[in-house]
């Protein structure tokens, strides 16, 4: 069982004993345990619990809340059911929790049972700040959660129930051994229902949850066991693949567990499987951003699709060689065959496209360089079958009605009416195809992803997808047209427009002869494959953005640094912007982040008002980063409220706890700066990884430098210190980067992103738009 599944307790919230038993049976051995709560218990009592749990680790979720004597008695009674976890409400107070802890200890000792975790519910995950205010509790939910967690710990409880949003905060405050049992888990594909403080399973695991409690996403699924698989394997974009992250605002923490949690003691009676140590094993690496699935940024996605393809034209040709040969052979054969054999030739042609598209999807999504002779098998077959199925669906849904209607219209002499009928149908065809299109990248990366899932995950992005395809099409049409005209006139070929210029990669059968014609056709084929690669890239990028897919560690390209596979260019942050022209240069040049400094001593400092005015109207393609140095709460509050930055850069000596607190309290992703001069300066990074969303490695201000700033001193450090290092968090490099050294810095350190300030200035604080442009150009070409 994977670590993710072992940490999963499924809530069997039902009054139907048979259903609970069927669910338990379906989930037996697939999850860490089962949770039976008030609904089931009220209907079936302790005997029902025994009958339903059937020896699986049991979380008896009765959330006791009463006077100390009553809760202690209830827990003594509950001990007979041999639960692995029992709970109460922390708001019952100190005396109640202390009595409860004592009762659990005594009762299990008397019975000779293993002692279950006794945990306290802090603030229900169905409550948000507004709900809390209504019951007289003002302030962030996280404050109340932290207060109650500390009290519970003080009373000798093993842990708490908290929402995923407070995991990092509680880990920092209560230590690695304090159990965090986390409901409010919602993969992207599941409805939130009544839950409010939610996140994805991957995020909760990555943040350091000991147990994930999931109910309806599993129990309401047609196949609960399959839902567990999906949930445990649910993925989100990899932070270190620059393009993927460009679409997502903010990143949640991913934590490497500081220490193994202590599992409950083994059951001496041996009747109930104790939770294994793998409960505490670190989750597989994944980087899930919080919140809803991102909207697809149309312009940026198209630009990235072109950029990725054009940066790897050689690889496109490698990927195209076999498909092109196959396609050309079949086209030549098919041209002479016609009828059924011609149809077979078309099927082979589609298969050739599948070979190409699978290779290119994999190039982008998992960084696998294409090969001249790829391994052919299930992937291409699935892709091919999906292509045929989609053609069939679109034909049945749209093509046939269009033909019938246009026949009617033509018969009735309704020429103009024809357009009115056909145009909506064509739009419908595009819409349906776009909604189903995610099955293709999914097939290429071996994801189980059907039409229904594609339909679901494209919801809200369908028209953006269509817009992106149309936008991508314009340059293609222009280039093909140009080639036709130029090629036609150069070669003296008539009727070229009906020749081999189809947008499909295989092109048509050549209708022109002679060596010049062959060269021309070869050129068209190359162009066609390049454009096909753009489309495939576009689809891959959209898939990754909308579904949050991220490769398994086994198939992922290196998490950082230029690996042997294929990669996008280096992302850049231009920091310390204070003028509109510099900001415009950064945005136009493709900076992924723009940094604003809220540190009064800096020559780049801006006020919150200036910053807000400067960044007003910025599109989603660029993220605002607020640089703070040991900020007090009031400053963070002002900056977050006034600017709503996508990232808070903490550039001072903020402790791990403070970083966690800032992130959680202001619900804004944070980037912690690690200042480096020597190898040992990298060590603190590990402690910050659990609580920060990003790391920034900057040069340590030299002690000898008079009036040194916390950063931006035009000083660099030995980039070799970072070479080959892998971090759990996405990271970037800064410190004395300039136009002259950025290439070398990236090459040596393997940085996936860079941050520059003084290197694009003419004097401290005076940004040069020209230098910014040139710097970004360099990064784009790296
Ligand atoms: O704060 C809390 C405490 C407990 N729960 C319980 O967890 C499950 C969640 O079920 P879903 O169907 O996944 O929403 C449910 O049994 C709750 O009683 C919680 O959600 N929040």
UniProtKB/TrEMBL annotation:
Instruction: Provide this UniProt record's keywords sorted from A to Z.
Output: Amino-acid biosynthesis, Aromatic amino acid biosynthesis, Decarboxylase, Isomerase, Lyase, Membrane, Pyrimidine biosynthesis, Transmembrane, Transmembrane helix, Tryptophan biosynthesis
Give the Enzyme Commission number. Answer: 4.1.1.23
What biological-process GO terms show up in the record? Answer: 'de novo' pyrimidine nucleobase biosynthetic process; 'de novo' UMP biosynthetic process; L-tryptophan biosynthetic process
Tell me the segments the record calls region Disordered.
Answer: 256-293
PROSITE patterns, A to Z: OMPDECASE
**Bias regions of kind Pro residues — which residues?**
281-292
Q: Which GO terms describe its molecular function?
A: orotidine-5'-phosphate decarboxylase activity; phosphoribosylanthranilate isomerase activity
Residues annotated as binding substrate: 13, 35, 125, 186, 195, 215-216
Biological or metabolic pathway of the protein: Amino-acid biosynthesis; L-tryptophan biosynthesis; L-tryptophan from chorismate: step 3/5; Pyrimidine metabolism; UMP biosynthesis via de novo pathway; UMP from orotate: step 2/2
Top-rank EC class of the record's enzyme: lyase
Residues spanning the membrane: 316-334, 340-360, 381-405, 417-445, 466-492, 512-539
- One Pfam family it belongs to: OMPdecase
What are the annotated GO cellular component locations?
cytosol
User: InterPro entries, alphabetically?
Assistant: Aldolase_TIM, OMPdecase, OMPdecase_AS, OMPdecase_bac, OMPdeCOase_dom, PRAI_dom, RibuloseP-bd_barrel
- Catalysed reactions, as listed in the record: orotidine 5'-phosphate + H(+) = UMP + CO2
Q: Which Gene3D superfamilies match?
A: Aldolase class I (3.20.20.70)
The Orotidine 5'-phosphate decarboxylase domain covers 7-231
Q: Where is the active site?
A: 61 (for ompdecase activity), 63 (for ompdecase activity), 66 (for ompdecase activity)
Task: Give the matching NCBIfam families.
Answer: PRK00230.1, PRK01222.1-1, pyrF
Record HAMAP family: OMPdecase_type1_B, PRAI
Family designation: Belongs to the OMP decarboxylase family.
Q: How does it assemble?
A: Homodimer.
Its name, as the record gives it, is Orotidine 5'-phosphate decarboxylase
């Amino acid at each position: 069982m994977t670590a993710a599944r072992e940490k999963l307790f499924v809530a069997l919230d039902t009054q139907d004993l048979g259903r609970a038993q069927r669910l338990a049976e379906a989930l037996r051995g697939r999850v860490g345990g089962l949770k039976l709560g008030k609904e089931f218990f009220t209907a079936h009592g302790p005997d029902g619990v025994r009958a339903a749990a059937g020896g699986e680790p049991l979380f008896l979720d009765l959330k006791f809340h009463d006077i100390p004597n009553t809760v202690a008695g209830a827990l003594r009674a509950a001990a007979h059911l041999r639960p692995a976890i029992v709970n109460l409400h922390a708001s019952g107070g100190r005396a109640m929790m202390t009595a409860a802890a004592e009762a659990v200890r005594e009762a299990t000792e008397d019975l000779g049972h293993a002692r279950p975790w006794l945990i306290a519910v802090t603030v229900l995950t169905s409550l948000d700040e507004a709900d809390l205010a209504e019951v007289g509790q003002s302030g962030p939910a996280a404050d109340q959660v932290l207060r109650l967690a500390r009290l519970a710990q003080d009373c000798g409880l093993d842990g708490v129930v908290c929402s995923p949003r407070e995991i990092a905060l509680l880990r920092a405050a209560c230590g690695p051994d304090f159990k965090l049992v986390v409901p409010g888990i919602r993969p992207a594909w599941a409805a939130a229902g009544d839950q409010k403080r939610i996140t994805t399973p991957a995020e909760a695991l990555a943040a350091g949850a000991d147990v994930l409690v999931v109910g309806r996403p599993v129990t309401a699924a047609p196949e609960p066991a399959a839902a567990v698989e999906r949930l445990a394997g649910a993925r989100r974009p990899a932070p270190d693949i620059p393009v993927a992250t460009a679409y997502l605002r903010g990143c949640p923490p991913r934590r490497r567990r500081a220490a193994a949690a202590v599992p409950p003691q083994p059951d001496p009676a041996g009747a109930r499987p104790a939770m294994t140590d793998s409960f505490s094993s670190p989750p597989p690496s994944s980087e899930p951003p919080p919140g809803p699935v991102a909207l697809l940024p149309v312009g940026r996605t198209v630009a990235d699709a072109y950029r990725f393809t054009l940066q790897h034209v050689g690889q496109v040709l490698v990927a195209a060689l076999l498909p092109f040969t196959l396609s050309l052979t079949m086209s030549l054969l098919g041209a002479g065959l016609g009828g059924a054999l011609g149809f077979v030739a078309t099927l082979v042609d589609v298969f050739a496209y599948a070979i190409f598209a699978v290779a290119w999807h994999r190039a982008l999504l998992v960084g696998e360089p294409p090969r001249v002779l790829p391994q052919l098998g299930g992937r291409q077959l699935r892709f091919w079958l999906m292509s045929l199925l989609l053609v069939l669906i679109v034909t049945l849904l749209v093509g046939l009605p269009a033909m019938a209607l246009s026949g009617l219209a033509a018969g009735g002499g309704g020429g103009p009416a024809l357009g009115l009928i056909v145009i909506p149908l064509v739009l419908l065809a595009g819409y349906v195809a776009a909604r189903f299109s995610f099955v293709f990248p999914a097939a290429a990366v071996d994801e189980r992803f059907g039409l229904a899932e594609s339909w679901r995950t494209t919801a809200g992005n369908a028209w953006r997808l269509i817009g992106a395809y149309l936008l991508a099409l314009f340059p293609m049409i222009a280039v093909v047209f140009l080639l036709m005209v130029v090629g036609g006139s150069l070669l003296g070929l008539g009727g070229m427009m009906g020749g081999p210029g189809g947008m499909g990669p295989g092109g048509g059968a050549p209708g022109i002869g002679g060596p010049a014609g062959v060269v021309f056709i070869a050129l068209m084929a190359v162009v066609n494959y390049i454009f096909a690669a753009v489309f495939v890239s576009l689809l891959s990028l959209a898939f990754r953005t909308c579904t949050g897919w991220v490769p398994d560690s086994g198939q992922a390209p290196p998490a950082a640094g230029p690996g042997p596979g294929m990669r996008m260019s280096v992302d850049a942050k231009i920091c310390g912007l204070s003028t509109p022209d510099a900001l415009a240069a950064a945005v136009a040049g493709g900076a992924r982040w723009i940094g604003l400094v809220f540190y009064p001593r800096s020559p780049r400092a801006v006020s919150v008002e200036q910053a807000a005015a400067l960044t007003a109207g910025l599109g989603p393609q660029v993220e605002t980063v607020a640089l703070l140095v040991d900020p007090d709460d009031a400053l963070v509050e002002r900056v977050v409220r006034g600017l709503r930055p996508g990232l808070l850069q903490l550039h001072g000596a903020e402790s791990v706890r403070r970083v966690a607190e800032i992130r959680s309290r202001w619900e804004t992703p944070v980037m912690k700066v690690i200042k480096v001069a020597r190898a040992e300066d990298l060590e603190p990074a590990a402690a910050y990884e659990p609580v920060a969303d990003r790391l920034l490695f900057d040069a340590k201000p030299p002690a000898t430098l008079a009036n040194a700033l916390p950063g931006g001193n035009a000083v660099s450090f030995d980039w070799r210190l970072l070479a080959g290092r892998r971090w759990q968090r996405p990271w970037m490099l800064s410190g004395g980067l300039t136009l002259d050294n950025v290439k070398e810095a990236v090459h040596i350190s393997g940085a996936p992103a860079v941050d520059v300030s003084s290197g694009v200035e003419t004097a401290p604080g005076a940004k040069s738009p020209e230098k910014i442009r040139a710097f970004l150009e360099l990064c784009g070409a790296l």
